[in-house]
Amino acid sequence: MVMTKLVQSLQGLISLVVCLFALTFSASADRKITEEARVFQALRDGVFTVFGDKGHGSGFLIDEHGVVLTNQHVVANSTKLAVQINDSVKVPSQLLLEDEKRDIAAIFVHPSTVSGLPVLEIRRNTDDFAFEGERVVAIGSPLKQSRILTSGIISKLEEKAIISDVNINPGNSGGPLINMDKQVIAINTFLDRTVSGPGI
Asked: What is the C-alpha separation between 84 and 93, in angstroms, rounded?
């Protein structure tokens, strides 16, 4: 009698486990890979951490010959520049040009260190360059992280800036803001540090 009840209990437990597994499998089968995830998976290896004398920011590959774009303030007045290509490769870099007014700088790493990595396309200036409400993603190295994805929408277009609600933090500066066509439409810059909340 005791053995019969034990067997029945085990059968009940097995049935419960099978039901839970079936529900989990069903939920997994319904999951969708978002467009944001597709953009991130395609381009993340072309986004790097850039180190200057005052700290670090982000940068992204724009040319197969080793040209990396970043913010000028990330590399300003630095005697030594370095780029973290991946978790195990960090290489020296040279400043090619900088524009303090536009807060843009181009740096160079040896082409062999970026061979085979995705080159990010910069969207050309057209009438439909970007629009308010458009979905965008940022890839960068905020705080002590690297290659972090955050997403949101364009909140406002200004003459010299694209404002979005994408969450960025110190270290995101110099990283790309990317549309769902996998095109870079802006360089992220962490601003308004004097107020609480995420930067814009």
From this structure: 10
